[in-house]
């Protein structure tokens, strides 16, 4: 069995008395691609921030393997557009980077020709690849990608997911992704975890997509396959502070807790 890199154990977090995450259990192993899905504001990025140590959980524990080394790709590049900065110089800012690895990494990602380009003139897809290059230059055994295909057209999304899968195959690293592009990402994912305060559904894409919960959450029969709709129907009701009050309607999506 592959080495487990990270395990979230009963992670919970509250802000100003409001429970955002409650009792989250999930894990990521080497060679595994895990995709985190859920409605806007359900706490996906917060869970990533907890993993990165940028946010403290209110309860529970993140168990990290002693060899864990994370390469993080944020949702967006936050750089002052008036600041002159080439791709090469941007990547040279990675702490401890081996500068000889910059060009080969860009070659792997198909953007070697952009090495002397200014970062603020890059297209959406090019920017995402530069951010992926930065994550890879950290020599990770876990890639953490927060909405990696944001701002990328559909063809570009397929290419990026293929690249990510290829990187997993080559490096044998684990991958944790947040995504809204359910149909495209499913084909490249080993495990899907759907959160909405708690873990609502999880498992292989085959298991999850065949599950009534998934269909109630994301699928509208006959609708455009590329459109994912968050119509999250619980089989229970949440109280004011997030507690689960009832589970009396078994025609609704079944959540796993
Ligand atoms: N430090 C904080 N203090 C107060 N509220 C916070 C804090 N961090 C996050 N939140 C709130 O938690 C909620 C979840 O945010 P988060 O960004 O984790 O959701 P998300 O699932 O990643 O959303 P999206 O899909 O829209 O990116 C938001 O309502 C946000 O305002």
From TrEMBL:
Domain ABC transporter: 6-221
Keywords, alphabetical: ATP-binding, Cell membrane, Ion transport, Membrane, Nucleotide-binding, Translocase, Transport, Zinc, Zinc transport
InterPro entries the record matches: AAA+_ATPase, ABC_transporter-like_ATP-bd, Metal_Ion_Import_ABC, P-loop_NTPase
Pfam families documented for this protein: ABC_tran (PF00005)
Keyword Transferase listed: no
GO MF: ATP binding
Record's protein name: Zinc ABC transporter ATP-binding protein ZnuC
Organism: Marinomonas colpomeniae
Lineage of producing organism: Bacteria, Pseudomonadati, Pseudomonadota, Gammaproteobacteria, Oceanospirillales
Gene that encodes it: znuC
């Amino acid at each position: 069995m592959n080495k487990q890199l990270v395990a979230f154990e009963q992670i919970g977090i509250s802000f100003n008395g409001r429970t955002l995450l409650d009792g989250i259990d999930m894990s990521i192993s080497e060679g595994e691609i895990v995709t985190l899905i859920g409605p806007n504001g359900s706490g996906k990025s917060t869970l990533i921030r907890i993993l990165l140590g940028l946010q403290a959980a209110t309860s529970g524990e993140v168990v990290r393997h002693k060899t864990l080394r994370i390469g993080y790709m944020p949702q967006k590049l936050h750089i002052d557009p008036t600041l002159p900065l080439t791709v090469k110089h941007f990547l040279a800012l990675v702490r401890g980077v081996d500068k000889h690895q910059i060009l080969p990494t860009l070659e792997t990602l198909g953007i070697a020709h952009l090495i002397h380009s200014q970062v603020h003139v890059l297209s959406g897809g090019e920017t995402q690849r530069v951010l992926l290059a930065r994550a890879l230059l950290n020599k990770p055994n876990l890639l953490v990608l927060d909405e990696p295909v944001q701002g990328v057209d559909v063809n570009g999304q397929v290419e990026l997911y293929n690249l990510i899968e290829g990187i997993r195959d080559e490096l044998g690293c684990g991958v944790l992704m947040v995504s809204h592009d359910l149909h495209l990402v499913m084909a490249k994912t080993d495990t899907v975890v759907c959160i909405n305060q708690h873990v609502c559904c999880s498992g292989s894409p085959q298991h999850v997509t065949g599950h009534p919960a998934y269909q109630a959450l994301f699928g509208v029969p006959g609708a455009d396959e590329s459109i994912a709709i968050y119509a999250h129907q619980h089989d229970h009701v949440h109280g004011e502070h997030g507690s689960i009050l009832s589970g009396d309607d078994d025609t609704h999506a079944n959540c796993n807790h």
